[in-house]
From TrEMBL:
Residues 1-25 form the signal peptide. Keywords: Signal. Residues 50-247 form the Peptidoglycan beta-N-acetylmuramidase NamZ N-terminal domain. Residues 251-401 form the Peptidoglycan beta-N-acetylmuramidase NamZ C-terminal domain. This is DUF1343 domain-containing protein. Pfam families: NamZ_C, NamZ_N. The keyword Methyltransferase does not apply. The keyword Cell membrane does not apply. It comes from the Bacteria.
């Protein structure tokens, strides 16, 4: 036992070998992720053939959990990679193929290529599955879709799923509830824009609300985060995807991703995605400029590529008031629409060439109609009821943290 604890200490002190968030990120004092509490789950995995749903955010201390657990004698038979791939270097929406991890020789089965969930054949090779991926707490971020797919596959194959829980940096609840008529790859569940749950809590809700196929139930074991509350500030130690590469972009993402359904760029094709907004047609209205270009691994064909965009620089914007109030900022999209010269193009997906239309992103057709009609922010927010309050009440049943 002493030797094992010594080895765990070495792992937690290991030098990182991958890109982390900026050095100025505040310390995460006292919070221990599920993965960091190795003593709680290591005995559970010993002697079993283990599959792992992981990416670059799956760390123990400063080392990838796959490498750490192999060092501790865990028999990892397969890695299942979500959107952006196991190493997190694939662009948004880009298909990722199967491969063999060069560092470990472990087969990597892509869940963002030819298939979205493990096959029964894949699961015959393992005894237990581990899910360990950082999430950013938004309906249109695809990790919760992957979680649902993994739970369904495990339920069908009779495999248990161990979830190493991690904090949600956007731990508040806000936005319209998804009208299931607009269900798509960027919205799969009747939840608001920010769902206010960790992956472990969301897994409990998937089971409890019967949202798995045929209302199946997946056997899950959640290793909870220690010393954590939803209202705590938390900085992810590793960028969760190529275009969420700073803490500021992660905190602005719930608000700025709505612009994916407009003609306005959110900075894809720059080194500052989801911290700026702009379009060529806004010249003369805004002074700040940026130019999207093709960046392999981030955005190969960004909106307004090689064009000067005029708009807002939000890199130093204080997100604290909105976060503490538990609100997505919808004022930016309302104001940008008012400022845009040709309003007929603002929400036209044929012009924007983006990943989703505004109805799918907002979860309702009413949001676009309200903006076009010039409704106030108060009127728009009022229309999210009673659905938002009903969701908050339902959510309480599944919370692991205050």
């Amino acid at each position: 036992m002493q030797l094992r604890l010594f080895m765990i200490g070495l792992l937690l002190a290991a030098t990182p070998v991958f890109c982390t968030m900026p050095a100025e990120a505040p310390a995460r004092e006292g919070i221990l992720t599920g993965a960091d509490q190795v003593n709680l789950y290591l005995p559970y995995l010993k002697g079993k053939r283990v599959g792992m749903v992981v990416n670059q955010t799956s760390i123990i201390g400063n080392k990838l959990s796959v490498d750490s657990l192999r060092t501790l004698g865990i028999n990892i038979k397969a890695i299942f990679g979500p959107e952006h791939g196991f190493r997190g270097n694939a662009s948004n929406g880009a298909e990722v193929g199967d491969e063999v991890d060069a560092a470990t020789g472990i087969p990597i089965i892509s869940l963002y290529g030819q298939k979205r969930k493990p096959s029964r054949e894949d699961l015959q090779k393992i005894d237990i599955m581990v899910f360990d991926i950082a999430d950013v707490g938004c309906r249109f971020y695809t990790n919760i879709n992957t979680l649902r797919d993994i739970m369904e596959s495990c339920a069908e194959a009779g495999k248990e799923l161990v979830i190493l829980d991690r904090p949600n940096p956007n731990g508040y609840v806000d936005g319209p509830i998804l009208d299931m008529k607009y269900r798509s790859g960027i919205g799969q569940f009747p939840i608001p824009i920010t769902h206010g749950m960790t992956i472990g809590e969301f897994a409990q809700m998937l089971n409890g609300e019967g949202w798995l196929k045929d209302k199946m139930k997946c056997k899950i074991k959640v290793i909870p985060v220690a010393n954590y509350r939803h209202d705590m500030d938390y900085t992810l130690p590793v960028a969760p995807s190529p275009n969420l590469n700073t803490q500021q972009s992660i905190l602005l993402y719930p608000s700025l991703c709505l612009f994916e359904g407009t003609i306005v760029s959110q900075g894809r094709g720059t080194r500052m995605p989801f911290t700026v907004l702009g379009a060529p047609a806004l010249k003369g209205i805004f002074d700040f400029t940026f130019m999207p270009v093709s960046i392999p691994g981030m955005s190969e064909t960004p909106l307004h590529q090689n064009e000067t965009c005029y708009g807002l620089d939000l890199r130093n914007y204080d997100v604290t008031p909105h976060r503490k109030a538990g609100k997505v900022n919808i004022k930016w999209i309302m104001d940008m629409y008012k400022a845009y010269p040709d309003k007929s193009k603002f929400f036209d997906r044929s012009y924007s060439r983006q990943i989703g239309n505004i109805d799918g992103l907002a979860g309702t057709a009413l949001f676009k109609q309200q903006i076009i009609a010039g409704k106030s922010e108060e009127e728009i927010r009022k229309s999210w009821e009673p659905g938002l309050s009903a969701y908050k009440k339902m959510r309480k049943k599944y919370l692991l943290y205050q």
